[in-house]
Structures are given as structure tokens and as C-alpha cells.
Amino acid sequence: MTGCELRAIRSEWGMTQREFAQFLTYTDQQVSKMERGEAKIPEIIEKFVLLEQKLRAIKNLVCTP
């Protein structure tokens, strides 16, 4: 996952960097560096974000009338 992809997912979820950082239990500075490509995105964060994205998609399918 690239920083650009991470930023796109965060934006899709309607979160600020600070909200996203709190969600991931990281600092907003760490999220900013990951999004700009200045820090590597830890594999556990990548897996967590992708899993959460899939769960949100399933929820939208199941909960949409």
C-alpha cells in the first residue's frame, strides 16, 4: 500500500488525519509521514486498514435497503 492509497482510504472514510491517527492509535504526524511516503506503512496497519475497508463494504451491502 502506498501513502497515496492510505490517504484515499482515509478520505473515503471521511476522516481527518487526526481522526485516522486516533483510530489507528498513531500520532497525526506519523500518519502524515506515511501518507507523504516519508515513513513506511507498517504491515499490520496495512492489513488492518484493508480488512476494515472490506468490512465497511460488506456492512454497506448488508445494511443498505
Describe the protein.
The longest helix has 21 residues, at 43-63. The mean pLDDT is 93. With 65 residues, this protein is mostly helical. It is 74% helix and 0% strand. It is built from 4 helices and no strands. The chain starts with a helix and ends with a helix. The protein has a single domain (3-63), classed as 434 Repressor (Amino-terminal Domain). Helix 1 crosses helix 3 and helix 2 crosses helix 3 (28-36).
In brief:
With 65 residues, the chain is an all-alpha fold. The protein has 4 helices and no strands.
What layout of secondary structure does this protein have?
Blueprint lengths: L2 H10 L4 H8 L3 H9 L6 H21 L2
Helix pairs in contact: 1-3, 2-3
Could you tell me the strand content as a percent range? under 5%
**CATH homologous superfamily placement:** lambda repressor-like DNA-binding domains
Number of strands: 0
The tally of helices reads: 4
Rg computed from alpha carbons, rounded to a whole number of angstroms: 12 Å
User: How many domains?
Assistant: 1
Query: What is the arithmetic mean of pLDDT?
Result: 93
CATH class: Mainly Alpha
Query: Biggest sheet, open or closed, and with what strands and sense?
Result: none
SSE order in H/E notation? HHHH
Q: Structural class, please?
A: mainly alpha
Extract low-pLDDT stretches.
Answer: none
Shape: elongated
The CATH architecture assignment turns out to be Orthogonal Bundle
Give the terminus-to-terminus CA distance.
32 Å
Percentage of helical residues?
over 70%
What name is given to the CATH topology? 434 Repressor (Amino-terminal Domain)
